Amino acid sequence: MFNFDLYLPTRLVFGKGRIDELPEITKSYGSKILLTYGGGSIKRSGIYDKIKELYKGAEIFELSGIEPNPRITSIRKGVEIAKKEKVDFILAVGGGSVLDASKNIAAGAFYDGDPWDLVLDASKIGKTLPLFSVLTLSATGSEYDNSGVITNEATHEKMPIFGNLWPVASICDPTYTFSVPANQTAAGAADIMSHTFESYIVNQGNTLTDGICEAMLRTVIKNAPVAIAEPDNYEARAELMMASSFGCCGLLNIGRESSPWVCHGLEHELSAFYDITHGVGLAILTPVWMRYSLNEHTAPRFANYGVNVFGLNPKDDVMSNAKKAIDLTADFFKKIGLPSKLSEVGIDDSHFEEMADHVRKIWFGDFKDAIRPLDREDLLNILKGAL
Amino acid sequence: MFNFDLYLPTRLVFGKGRIDELPEITKSYGSKILLTYGGGSIKRSGIYDKIKELYKGAEIFELSGIEPNPRITSIRKGVEIAKKEKVDFILAVGGGSVLDASKNIAAGAFYDGDPWDLVLDASKIGKTLPLFSVLTLSATGSEYDNSGVITNEATHEKMPIFGNLWPVASICDPTYTFSVPANQTAAGAADIMSHTFESYIVNQGNTLTDGICEAMLRTVIKNAPVAIAEPDNYEARAELMMASSFGCCGLLNIGRESSPWVCHGLEHELSAFYDITHGVGLAILTPVWMRYSLNEHTAPRFANYGVNVFGLNPKDDVMSNAKKAIDLTADFFKKIGLPSKLSEVGIDDSHFEEMADHVRKIWFGDFKDAIRPLDREDLLNILKGAL
């Protein structure tokens, strides 16, 4: 058992119609609001009008157009508004990208320099604006954690930001994901699963969090296909939304060996260069990484996964179960409509060398801590294996 | 999926030696401390001296002798010290009873009347003293929740207190439980399991928290016998301590049908009258309650438990698996040395009528919400069945 801290100060407010409670939840924080969102979906879905109605009388400033891989240029705009208008809090409405951007804005509002500095150096994060969220996509778990991932399009860098960035409260209404299309639902499912794999596929776990990780995986594997087939199936959407919040908050890591989150590290390189959907990149990389990491030493972890998640027979050969578990993972991603090769999303090997260098510089943890230790050559092999 | 709020603001600081970080964690809260504890075990174990050393220069006031079922008389003493000395925060060192009492003291310190009022009426809880804890027993989960259970020995009442009572931070060092004797280790295990059953054995769960509950149960069933056989087995003690924190914090209930926590309600009646160990009462009542609740309608839940926790064959008959699961639960409690009948702990039926009346008045939730709805007669039958 490894030492750990667990700190989850965000209040999750989960269920249909809970947005009505938002003005009560935010009332002690002031009435000058920076509303952040992405494209027009929150207008089509009615959430935008709902918020205007709920906050009648408040001053609402808006930052719209936050990109799926949120860019520092958008964050700079948000910081400018927050500073100029002296907003009291941020209300982020969207998925992980809107939340991630809003976290950087929350910290940037009290920082004199460029908000990208805060990505490069977390120690520069001081006071932050209170952040509230209304979640519209089940994927990154940013609604329940203290981190984000920001893209600097000028330098092709996509990097994590960490700090005192927990939302105060997140409204998680599964009905807001009814309109999420199949491909985004699938990508979100892959993201939740990848968060879980990054915690779960390590040499040393423990009974409790192994079991929690397996429950996370069973939840997504059961419900993503249902949500794709029946977009307004409340139970399926709700199970995915609940799982989303636990993927990245630290609960899955407690007491376990830490891992360098190999697929996340590599995928952020891919989407920094090609702006692909994060979950799509993860679905492509994950089975390749798993196969690359499989050996006599690591097979028991993969076999356990197969037994406890896919119901493989524990009496069967360990290596055979391990291989089956990885195949079933790849099959699942295909079944929910995700691509399995980088070539399918227009990525070739032209930036692999840069990616392998960059990820080793900026990503947290040494890739030698992965379940199969990885050097630069190994990272390149995984990328090439995904072509 | 049922609507829920999840709010877990306590910082868990888990692992060997983490107590050294306590002064840093508490430093912004002041230096007048109310140290609360039970008997002499924290002196024998060296934690008392350690705290004196860590807080050299601070003013430490002490409330010792907090009872296993903490009494309002102790709490009144603590409130008196807190008010008189104007302490800055409370440092609770012990198990659930010390923590529960300290929560009542934390709220009582800013309340003009008798602290028992705060048990009877949570709306009277206002400001509270910051509370920190050092856990020495894996059982109640009070280190990571906002509630406690207080005994009024004058009226034979043992009642829950709820409110803004989360510890700011809890130090969870598994080595502090090495000296916990076998019977208390077993009783703690039964308490953790009962917290889980009270959430898990309901008509409607969900994939994720069903899985988390099953992981909790597997964790305790695997590790309690090891901790009893090898009291200083760090892994086993650590797994129990980690599970303890999640038993009562709300995580196991999210999105599930709520339950009236039948065994906890009845057990608090037993220990209000007879001052028995809470976990012992739970171990006696739980299998009786399970058998009483088993019928054609509820059998699938018990059978699932058997399959996912004890590895029963899912292809076997549902009722047969359900019965086996309950028998295995009773066997497990026996195996770790817990009594299985009230008569073994000196309890007869002389107060059953009062208990059945009282619990229906004070306990949260209507017992008609239990997996098998229970009226007064049913509660009496369960108590009699446990004789």
Automatic annotation (TrEMBL), chains A, B:
GO terms for molecular function: alcohol dehydrogenase (NADP+) activity; butanol dehydrogenase (NAD+) activity; metal ion binding; methylglyoxal reductase (NADPH) (acetol producing) activity. CDD domains: BDH (cd08187). The keyword Oxidoreductase applies. The keyword Oxidoreductase applies. GO terms for cellular component: cytosol. Its cofactor is Fe cation. InterPro entries: ADH_Fe/GldA, ADH_Fe_C, ADH_Fe_CS, BDH-like. Keywords: Oxidoreductase. Pfam families: ADH_Fe_C, Fe-ADH. Residues 9-174 form the Alcohol dehydrogenase iron-type/glycerol dehydrogenase GldA domain. It comes from the Bacteria. Residues 185-386 form the Fe-containing alcohol dehydrogenase-like C-terminal domain. Belongs to the iron-containing alcohol dehydrogenase family. This is Uncharacterized protein. The lineage of its organism: Bacteria, Pseudomonadati, Pseudomonadota, Gammaproteobacteria, Aeromonadales.
